[in-house]
């Protein structure tokens, strides 16, 4: 093999090696022993479930425009997509504490999206999710989305604290 052929073989192998590294990183993140597995976690009151379903579907299927750098989104691991978004699909047991699965999902999320409404403002579960996410020192990664009502009354107390 000539030097030119050897360098071409190395050059063509490099993208495969890089792709394998990215694939392994994604697999680790989905097992919980690597970087965040979710681009975002949607926190909402179950009375706002229809909106949560719609937003979840829109975010996971959104395609990042080609003019934007591929590093945008969840560490650039998903190419032109934002990445996986967590949304719980079941009611919590009355009186129970924030479940371990929810805490694990919050820990493994890059952002917290809070669907804000009077129902969300009154929800102890939404408040607990905000408090837990904030305790992870990810305060700058909380995105409130007003679904119903007017600020500041539609915001859960944990979000209102900085506004009043």
- Low-confidence sequence ranges: 1-33
- Number of separate structural domains: 2
Briefly, what CATH class of the largest domain? Alpha Beta
SSE class? alpha/beta
As laid out across the biggest beta sheet, the strand order is 2-1-3-4
Tell me about the largest β-sheet. 4 strands, parallel
Chain-wise SSE layout:
Layout: H1 3-31, E1 38-43, H2 49-61, E2 85-86, H3 100-107, E3 109-116, H4 118-122, H5 124-135, E4 142-146, H6 157-160
Parallel strand pairs: 1-2, 1-3, 3-4
Characterise this structure.
This protein is of the alpha/beta class. It folds into two domains: about 1-35; about 35-160, 3-Layer(aba) Sandwich (Rossmann fold). It is about 45% helix and about 15% strand. The protein is built from six helices and four strands, in the order αβαβαβααβα. The chain is globular.
Summarize the structure.
It contains six helices and four strands, in the order H-E-H-E-H-E-H-H-E-H. It is of the alpha/beta class. Mean pLDDT is 74; it is low at 1-33.
Keyword list:
globular, 4-stranded parallel beta sheet, 4 strands, 43% helix, alpha/beta, single chain
